[in-house]
Amino acid sequence: EGSALVALFQPAAERESVSQLAARRVTAFSLALLPRITRAQPMDVLSSQATVAGYKAVLLAAVATGRFFPMLVTAAGTLTPARVLVLGAGVAGLQAIATARRLGAVVSAFDVRAAVKEQVESLGAKFLEMQIGEQAEAAGGYAKQLSEETHRRELAFLAQQVKDADIVITTAAIPGKRAPILITADAVGGMKPGSVIVDLAVETGGNCELAVAGTDVNRNGVLILGPVNLPSTLPYHASQMYARNISSFLLHVTRDGKLVVDFDDEIMRETCVTYAGEVRKS
Fold first, then answer.
1. Both 98 and 142 in a single domain?
2. Could you give the residue numbers annotated as active site?
3. Alpha-carbon distance 53 to 228, whole Å?
4. What average pLDDT values come out for the chain (282 residues) when binned by 10 residues?
């Protein structure tokens, strides 16, 4: 009671726990609420763990697929490279693009935020453009939920794109909301047998309609992976980055080893969930 807690959780999904923390007068901070500002980057747990997830997703796909990633010229003839499609070009998506490119795949990517086109192309991938016709970027640079009509057009557009892909990595997320469906069951039905989907958003509902958290699903020869907690599968570097994030945050909110609460500071104001027996974020 009366202690401080720094953790990674979504207050909206943990209302009962948040109420209990407030009742015990715990000063609780959630690093999931960090503002997207330069000063907060060393503390950004979501980005550091997304880096791990994006990298590992490609490795899982490479193991699951029945083909090579790079083009190979052999005595038996030339083998064409794998075609990888990455949906969502945030931290996880960009790392997936970079990793797939390192393995020699031909990579394309899609994101509703046109601003990420330059980042995608700088990694050697093709950016797939669709006319959105509305503001698709929210505060902090995150993608925002699209209108129903635009989302219908997005689904039709992506259904055509996944037909040609050998591997699809999905990473799209909307903070505080269910992950958007990007690949419908019908779209999966149009994919080639032997194709692989790795849904990194499965823990928040999934980008693929058929994805199941913690389970591999085979639908008409298309393998859909729903991996959970991928950072735990690379514990050395995931823990190293997490420790640095936590250390940076603690150095920011303490002076001489004591917590200093200052709600004029944007980082503290946005991350503090409970204080002095009250719930500040829910």
1. yes
2. 36, 41, 44, 47, 142
3. 9
4. 89 90 96 93 96 98 96 96 97 98 98 93 96 73 80 95 97 87 97 97 96 96 97 97 96 94 95 95 85
